[in-house]
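A quick aside before the break. I want you to see a complete sequence-to-structure record at least once, exactly as it would be stored in a machine-readable document. Don't worry about memorizing anything.
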Amino acid sequence: MAAFVRDPRPPFAQLDAGSYARLAELPTPSYVIDERMLHRNGEILAGVARRTGARLLLAQKAFSNFNFYPLLAPYLAGTEASGLYEARLGREEMPGKEVHVFCAAYREDEFDELLRYAGHIVFNSPAQLARFGPAARAAGKSVGLRINPECSTQQGHEIYDPCAPGSRLGTTRAQWDAAVEADPSLPDLLDGLHFHTLCEQDSDALQTTLDAVQRRFGDLLARPQIRWLNFGGGHHITRPGYDLARLDRCIIRAQKAWNVQVYLEPGEAWALNAGYLVTRVLDVTGSGPVRSAILDMSAACHTPDVIEMPYRPPLLGAADPGERLCAYRLGGPTCLAGDMIGEYTFHAPLRVGDLLVFGDMAIYTTCKNNTFNGMPLPSIYALGTDSTRLVASFGYDDFKTRLGTPHP
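That is the input. The structure line, written in tokens, reads:
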């Protein structure tokens, strides 16, 4: 095993020689969730709640490894779900906590069951509010509407921008006014409003968005029956350098202006930099200044966001292109030509069997992975202060039973 060299970057700041040695003993590829970092993130997020009175939810779309929910539960108010199954997971695995759900459109055949799990139901459009809102109110649920303040604060990845032109997410003010003109009773169904416009951003973007919300929807928020405002997710609260003081000011501003309970539902922030993906080199091919290294993990199967976002994940001890002499394009073993993780440089040549450790692999990995090409799913481990334990493992049946029913 190569000697451990400390990497000061945030995804690896808590990784010491002893922990690295335990990672090196695991089968590859494997996901490893660092419980120490979950605690650290939880403390930061709970601090926001203590200082401001805001209630913070876990957006399960980013991190739904429920075996770690007991660790996070003391820090949060509940969970946020994107549909029926996540709502059920939050209710079952975090009992006694709030369950909020937002879906771009609800299904008639699922809605009654959804009402058993969720306490807050957020609708995406006036039409959905009119169709399902009365049933939610009759069941004693708190009803909300997702608004679109038409204020883009991000560039470069429009796929993640809910305020991009033509967005299907959220109701614009013009859409709301037209709906209320047709049905003046719609506002009476509402207990709260929800906006989600950010993606891995600081609180300056939230401040800009809040200004737009006030301009476009301030009068609706001022209605006496509106009891809460959900700031959505995309807040990188646990990232080093995030402006917590400005976040606190934004929350307190909204509470004072509209006398509402403020909710936030970050996903990444709860598990940011709290996971690793350990993998080994299967082969080194090509010649020239940049060679190719084939790993036993796949970007397409095990880290889909690397291709979808796209982004180049941090790699322990590796550097950017051009910084070191030994350059490699790292890729997976599938037949997809684009199954590429990215280009990295190293101090020494890579060899078959070398261990590589990717960072920030707790978020949008285990909840998005797949078995394309029949790729096995990596096992999931928990990394504690002094031990590593297996949380889940997967095999051939997990691949096969997704595709059909085995013959008797």
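Two observations worth writing down. The chain has a mean pLDDT of 96. The first strand starts at residue 30 and ends at 34. We'll return to this after the break.
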